[in-house]
Amino acid sequence: MIGTVIQPLKGLEFIKGEEFVIGGPIEEGKNKVLVVEFWATWCPPCRTSIPHITEVAHKYKTKDVTIVGVTNEQDENTVKNFVEDMGDKMDYTVAIDLERSARNALFVPSKASGIPTAFILENNKVVWFGHPMDPAFEQTLDQSASRASARAGSEQGGEEDL
Predict the structure, then answer these.
(1) Would you give the DSSP letter of residue 68?
(2) pLDDT digits (tens, 9 = 90+) for 41-69
(3) Which helix (H) or strand (E) holds 48?
């Protein structure tokens, strides 16, 4: 699973945050970091990790890191009401995986056994997956974000030299 490159996923309905394509094209010379976190409204451990994911989203807000919580639940009203009730505790992008494309591209091949499970992708390539409260999650994300920032910084520096 580590090293798998994710192709563009369809069938996601974004109910909070800006819509984008998981596995979509990345501007040449950019380093894009994406966290895809699988969760559900009925999952007590997910409810515990949601504020943590929000903290992580705030920490990396100025970096080229995007965080999206993805649920397989099909009842849009249940998910929307849950997200609204969470308010600022769930302050990141949220999508419903209507066609199970994210589940089939990430969760199933990883043989993950439960939720919450987070995946860190760098330029659409899986570099880590596991529980979002695992210290390795933030360590890996920190490394990925640093690489993204270093690359962006070196490009900016190069442009200034022209």
Answers:
(1) E
(2) 999 999 999 999 999 999 998 888 999 99
(3) helix 44-59
Is 51 part of a structural domain of the chain? yes
Backbone dihedral angles phi then psi of residue 100, each to the nearest 5 degrees: 60, 25
Question: What is the number of domains present in the chain?
Answer: 1
Three-state secondary structure readout of 109-130: HHCCCCCCEEEEEECCEEEEEE
What separation in angstroms does the CA of 36 have from each of 39, 86, 101, 158, 162? 10, 19, 12, 32, 37
CATH number of the domain where residue 128 is located: 3.40.30.10
Which three-class secondary structure state does DSSP give residue 10?
coil
Closest CA to 155 of 29, 62, 32: 29
Whether 104 is covered by a domain: the verdict is yes
Per the CB < 8 A criterion, the answer to whether 120 and 33 are in contact is yes
Whether 83 is in a domain gets the answer: yes
104, amino acid identity: N
CA distances (Å), origin 61, targets 45, 53, 91, 125, 160: 24, 12, 11, 21, 24
Q: What is the pLDDT of residue 80?
A: 97
